[in-house]
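[Q] Does anyone have a clean structure-token version of this?
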Amino acid sequence: MLSLFERFESNVRYYCRDFPVLFKRAEQSFMFDVENKRYIDFLCGAGSLNYGHNHPYIKAAVIDYLQSDGIMQSLDLHTEAKSQFIDALQTTILAPRGLAYKQQFVGPTGANAVEAALKLARKVTGRSSVVAFTNAYHGVSLGALATTASAGKREAAGVALGGVTRLPYEGFLGGSRDDDARYVEAMLTQAGNGVDAPAAIILETIQGEGGLQTASAAWLARIAAVAKQIGALVIVDEIQTGCGRTGTFFSFEGLPIVPDLVCLSKSLSGIGLPLSVVLIAPEHDVWTPGQHNGTFRGNNLAFVAGRAAIELWRDEAFLGNLRSNVDRLDARLHDLARTYGHARPVLKGRGLMRGIELPDPSLADKIKLEAFRRRLVIETCGPEDSIVKLMPPITVEAEILDEAMDILSAAVGAVLGAAPASGRLDRRRVGEPELFDRDLAHPELLDLSGHRHRELRGELPVARDLERRDPAGAERGELFVVE
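[A] Here you go.
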């Protein structure tokens, strides 16, 4: 039956090449093939199914709407479904977080939101160029593709991709956090830099396709300050990081940055229906009527599903489960990294958008395929696909999360094999041997990812000492393995 896809579907198909089965149905964390074999889905539609497949509450709202003959497509006409979505987003998500945004509904994809945001920033400022970062991914339509860094994606454009100044994301240069930020500041503020003043700086707080590089609070604060100094808007691409993926609705919550424009899509509808929104600071809403549009900006079924998904954020049980899942996944990743420390794994990402970087890119691919053989669906990411990427449903049950991590650990073991820890910190991984001049009493590992720095088995003095002596290294978000 799969030969039909070979014969009639374009060569551009991608994910199905690694997962060559015929899926038929899905529920919550599971997909089932035509033989009723069960697969745990930690790919989640590349982040478009944060609430899992067919979440009962969201599905019920969709079924009720269909059975009531609700309007399906309305362009930008006023509808009850749209008004309820707007109100839910405003009262449940934006207002409680002190965010004052207007909502622009664009075409159905995340790239449509990026295109609209770039276009609006240029209109607001009267400038033409934008700043985007190394390893960024913002979509593959031409405007979004110009900001995307992937050579493989860019080479398909067929035209010059201009209007973008590429600057290094935090950690790209391999130096300190201060050096990374200082380079961006110099290129955008110092006389003689040769860079046209940008309309906007577009960024991801975690680079979803670019390797799960995680921006530190300090770096983001410096970028926001530079943008303000030069009169550029800040666009935060929340297409993959938003809607709870990092443990909070927005990935920038608690960070020192308030975007001028926010791009939302993927899991915004909560059930996989296409829906895309640009959140606009009111002073920047300078569109004239009809100046930017899209036929499918009035997807009312997605409005209904999205409103139901947002209502989940009022439920303390949902929020508590989300927090527990973040902690549980974090602990299981530490267990796995300690077990296979001889392979020099580096934990990446934040919340429920996590990954394991390996020095040999082929290992990540082998682990992905071995996991699938054991019926766990995951992907790889990064410029060399060297990172095993995990995006479980944020609603996943604890026992299913554990089952998936057991499968992943077995897959890693099948590919890597295991070796005992010897109790000495791997200095080569750090690049600053003078900081690591003592043996550890236990075969531990230090997790310096995100903004929490701790030892798995307790805050040993060496962990606190490292954090004090190398705060910049801690902010870079790497896991240094003890061997």
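[Q] Thanks! Anything notable?
[A] The first strand starts at residue 23 and ends at 27.
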